[in-house]
Amino acid sequence: MLSKVPEVTLYFWIIKILATTIGETAADYLNDKLGLGLSGTTYVMGAALIFVLVFQFQARRYIPPIYWLVVVFLSVVGTLVTDNLVENYGVALRTTTILFSIALAATFAIWYANERTLSIHSIYTTKREAFYWLAILFTFALGTAAGDLIAESLNVGYWKSALLFAGSIGLITFAWRYLRLNPILAFWMAYILTRPLGASIGDYLSQLKADGGLGLGTTTTSLIFLAAILAVVIYLSVTKKDQIPTGPSAAARVDLSASPSAASR
Fold first, then answer.
1. Domain assignment present for 166
2. Distance between CA atoms of residues 23 and 77, nearest Å
3. Which domain holds residue 201?
4. Is residue 1 part of a domain?
5. CA distance 262 to 252
C-alpha cells in the first residue's frame, strides 16, 4: 500500500482542529437537540465510525474525504466515550484523564515494540494503520477528559482554556523547530492538545452567554465547522497538496523517521 495518511502541513492542523470542534458540538447536538441521549448517540456514532473505517482500511492509499470523515467520527466517538464514563458511570474527570493517558501510553508502547516506529510517514500496512487509529481514538478521549477538567472542573473558562492549549502547542512547535525536540514526539504531543483546543473553541462558540460562551448554539457551530472542513478537503482533493510523495526519496524519508535517534538529528 501507499501511505494511508496525509502529509503534515498547515492544512492538516487546520482540519484537525476543525474536526475536534465538530466532535464536541456534534456530540452535544445529537445528545441534547435530537434527544438521543448519551447511550443512543454512542450507538449511532459508533456504527457510523465502523462503517467508514471499513472503507478506510480497504483503500490502498490516502483518500482525503474518507480519511477526514474517519477523523471527524473518531472525534465524536472519543468525546462520547469520556462523557459516558463521567455522566453515566460517575467516573471523575481526573480519573478518566489518568486512565486514557495510560491507555494511550500502552498503545504507543505496543505499537513501537511491534513496528519500531511511531512515525505517521510509515503508515503503509494494515497493522500500523490499526495502531494509528487506536492511538487517535485515545487522543480524542484523553483530550476531552483533560480539556473538561481544566475548562470546567478547575473553572478556567472556555476562551482562557483555548488560549492555554494554543500556547502549549506553540511551545511544542518552538521546541521542535529550535530546540531539536524529536519530531515524532512533538507531533503526538501537539495532536493530543488539538483536541481540548478544538473543544474549548467549540464550547466557547456554542454555549450560552450566561455559561461563558457566545451563544451560537451547537447547530450553527457544527454547520459552520462542517462547511469549513468540506471546503478544505475539497481543495486538498483537487490540489493534492497534502499527498505524501512516493518513490525512492519518500522511502528514504520513512527510513529516517522510523529511527527516533535519526529523527532527532
1. yes
2. 8
3. 10-263
4. no
5. 12
For the chain, the domain total comes to 1
Report yes or no on 3 lying in a domain. Answer: no
Output the pTM of the full model.
0.85
**CB–CB of 16/187 below 8 Å?**
no
**Distances, alpha carbon 265 to alpha carbons 36, 58, 150, 232, 260, in Å:** 51, 35, 35, 33, 9
Q: Give pLDDT, residue 259.
A: 38
Q: How many residues does the chain have?
A: 265
pLDDT in tens, 63-103: 999 999 999 999 989 988 998 999 899 999 999 999 999 99
Q: At residue 166, what is the residue type?
A: A
